[in-house]
Design a protein that fits this description.
mainly alpha; two-stranded antiparallel ribbon; 12 helices; globular
Amino acid sequence: MRAILLAGGLSLVFTLLGTRFAIRVLTTKGYGQLIRDDGPTTHHTKRGTPTMGGLVIIGSVVLAYFAAKLITRDVPSWSALLLLFLLVGLGTVGFLDDYIKVAKQRSLGLRSKAKFAGQTLVAVVFAGLALTRPDSRGETPASRHVSFIRDFNLTLPAVLVVLLILVMISGSSNAVNLTDGLDGLAAGASTMVFAAYTLVNIWQNNQWCALGGGNKCYDVRDPLDLAAVAAALTGACFGFLWWNASPAKIFMGDTGSLALGGALAGLAVLTRTEFLLAVLGGLFVLQTLSVILQVGYFKATGGKRMFRMAPLHHHFELKGWDEITVVIRFWIITGICVAAGLGVFYAEWVAGA
């Protein structure tokens, strides 16, 4: 538990202080955000706001986790190292995307194929490694079963498991990326979901099969160490929100959104709660569905639109809602989703205990 508190607290402090420093550096170098011309006109005032703030989030999480391990004199687990690899790997893909945007002064960075190739490479390496190095009980970080709150009795071939993890990581990272369109929206929503996963991991550790957790124990590898990483992610997003809240002094960019989305998927895979992520991260699912529906409806009707603009937060902006109103109401939706997800998680244990 000390490592969890240390990781969360240190990450919060590192992000609060580091983001202030990053704002000065990025502003000096002229690494400002470019704004789409077809978006809401109110966003044009944000042009030039420093971006790539996700570098601070990622750095704070990694430093806080290893500092906590050093202070508590504990050895990092294989599961936690894999999750950090996923965070840093997808953050690198996002950084390349952001850097190309600011270097070439265009609103599009990496080509879609190159971006997907980078995400695929990181996801496949993560999935492959997550199926290796079983512990003394034979548990690998990732399972070859499909899971909701715990594994179902359906064993999949390793190839299908890798494909499933790839789809989850790609979908989740892009979903957070789509949500990162208003000041504080993605950072605030991510804070709540990562906090939920911190609680899930702590509960799984308390009812861990390796500790004799009873008939409904959880067959999860390294739950307490995953809680430390989840706490570090919670603290980093919360600290970044100080500077990212409206009016934002800095944006996380694709560097942060791809990394955070990938970390959410990684936590879902490593905690055997793959489909529960769709409940906890309901806002991200809603945002992605709005884009899919918009594109599908546009093609099916020969140019008509279901929403004024997708993702969904822009639709409400164009309807006249203030940006801060959209953000707060979407935070409330996230809070409801997190409460529902945690309720389902706990109710399943109570019903079977």
